[in-house]
Amino acid sequence: MKNEFSISIVLNVKPDVLFKAWLDSKEHSKFTGSPAKINPKIGGKFTAWGGYISGKTLEIEPNKRILQTWRTTEFNDESPDSKIEILFEKAPKGTKLTLRHFEIPQDQVAEYKKGWKDFYFAPMKQYYSK
């Protein structure tokens, strides 16, 4: 099994709104239902899910793409940060969000793929269907 995956979802929200929400502490907390603290600049650090997730923003293409380092409290101290790339594409019914997660510790790939679906995509779908 390779140590990366890519998953997508279409959400009923404009790309610019979703992009801004991803990098906004208050909005990120609302769409996941859990505390997030985000410095929305390149080099800015973030935490999500009450500190379970942490990382740093490496690249930003406004309303199109975000690249971040990403780790959880379950990573071994020796494990380097993984990375996530989030793409925001205009779709007929809103935004197609594609998340590519790579450089994940080998034994955690399946767990994090399920986690993105359960703890991000499912609550986001509910939040943006209002």
Write up this protein.
With 130 residues, the protein is an alpha+beta fold. The chain has a single domain (4-127), classed as START domain (Alpha-D-Glucose-1,6-Bisphosphate, Chain A, domain 4, 2-Layer Sandwich). It contains three helices and seven strands. It has helices at residues 15-22, 25-32, 109-127, and strands at residues 4-11, 37-38, 45-48, 53-61, 65-72, 82-91, 94-102. A seven-stranded antiparallel beta sheet has the order 1-7-6-5-4-3-2. It is globular, with a radius of gyration of 14 Å. The relative contact order is 0.23. The model has no long low-confidence stretch (mean pLDDT 96).
Summarize the topology.
Layout lengths: L3 E8 L3 H8 L2 H8 L4 E2 L6 E4 L4 E9 L3 E8 L9 E10 L2 E9 L6 H19 L3
Antiparallel strand pairs: 1-7, 2-3, 3-4, 4-5, 5-6, 6-7
